Amino acid sequence: MASMRFLLSGSSGFRRGLVTAAPVVGAAAMGASSSPSRPSAAPAALCEMKGYTGRFGGTEKLETGARGTLENSALEASAGKSAARWSIHCERIEGVAKELFCLIGGLDPYISSVSNCSGPIMKAIKDKMDKTNWDSLWSQGHTMFSYGPEMSTDPTEAMTIKMFTFMKSPKRVLEIGMFTGYGAAAIVEALPADGECVSLDIDPFLQRWVGEVMSKFPEGKKHSVMVGPALESMAKLPANKKFDFVFVDANKSEYKRYVEVLLERDLLADGAMIAVDNTLYCGLPYMPAEYDTQPKRRGFGEDIKEFNAWLANHPKLMTVMLPIRDGVTLVRKR
Ligand SMILES: C[S@@+](CC[C@H](N)C(=O)[O-])C[C@H]1O[C@@H](n2cnc3c(N)ncnc32)[C@H](O)[C@@H]1O
């Protein structure tokens, strides 16, 4: 059914609901999070390792123009079809598919278009991120991993984190995994004047990249970065300076350990909230492996599944998962 091709092309909103037919290519790079070497090639066997990998091949979003063209031509191809207007079986399927495509594919853009709490630091970070040639930085050896903008929180998720920060009114926030600091910018914009946000990231390049933007804004002084493997940085955090809000978003295989360390080292203030990103991890925690179109992700998917079950059964934690983007789980102590 040629006109159903559009079901298989990229739209982040659509990917939320159905598997895609994006080509599976090798993970761009492998690097254990605690040993930040930069291997030049990723043999297939290595791809089963659980270290942080940076960007996954096959997950790149299409350029806006290309995506528009693809989706527009798909919609044009099924013009006139709707879930209600059909006279034969294949037309009915096309109509239902088109309606599903519009319903799911239009969701994220619509939510984004009616959400408006993004501020100037967020905008500056996003503008710089969109202009940065990540492939070139990686190929020249400037970055520790191969990155792409899809590794950042998107506007809707960042605005949600910003609203959580407003609601929590925290004095101290910890972000574990910063990338370009879009989430950190959202937090900084919502912090009170005497608030502070500490981001942990393994890649020193990102500290400079984010620092350049933050230094242009007075509120940027609220932000600082600790460079190194997150678990090593967490061991150095002073136990007497507790955090009211924590955003967990680094190595998916280490999530459980991040939360354990927060509890063991008593780093959480009374009533502290933890927000954990990617807890739906592309649907892998609940999808059978035979549907994997990007099998290299399965390792992280299984770790997130285990983490989610561990959280749900933890006697000292209460938790709720929200279906925002790739899944965001809120956690607090009972
Ligand atoms: C998904 S991105 C973070 C996105 C960010 N929270 C935002 O709001 O856009 C994950 C980041 O974690 C970092 N990272 C991966 N493994 C790490 C580790 N073991 N320790 C510290 N940072 C790590 C990567 O360098 C990357 O910048």
What is the secondary structure topology, with strand pairs?
Layout (H helix, E strand, L loop, with lengths): L11 H6 L46 H14 L11 H17 L1 H7 L6 H12 L2 H6 L15 H14 L3 E5 L5 H9 L5 E6 L2 H11 L8 E5 L2 H7 L6 E6 L6 H10 L3 E10 L20 H15 L4 E6 L5 E6 L1
Parallel strand pairs: 1-2, 1-4, 2-3, 4-5
Antiparallel strand pairs: 5-7, 6-7
Bound molecules: S-adenosylmethionine.
- The pLDDT mean sits at 85
Structure ligands: S-adenosylmethionine
Radius of gyration over alpha carbons? Answer: 21 Å
Estimated share of beta-strand residues = 5-15%
Net shape: globular
- The low-confidence runs, each spanning 5 or more residues with pLDDT under 50, are 1-49
- Enumerate the strands of the largest sheet in spatial order, edge to edge or round the barrel: 3-2-1-4-5-7-6
Q: What is the β-strand count?
A: 7
What structural class results from the helix and strand content?
A: alpha/beta
Q: Considering DSSP H and I runs of 4 or more, what fraction of the residues is helical?
A: 25-40%
Kindly report how far apart the N and C termini lie: 53 Å
Number of helices: 12
The biggest sheet, with number of strands, parallel, antiparallel or mixed sense and barrel status, is: 7 strands, mixed
**Multimeric organization:** single chain
Q: SSE string, helix = H, strand = E? A: HHHHHHHEHEHEHEHEHEE
Protein name: Caffeoyl-CoA O-methyltransferase
Keywords: Methyltransferase, S-adenosyl-L-methionine, Transferase
Pfam families: Methyltransf_3 (PF01596)
Organism: Prorocentrum cordatum
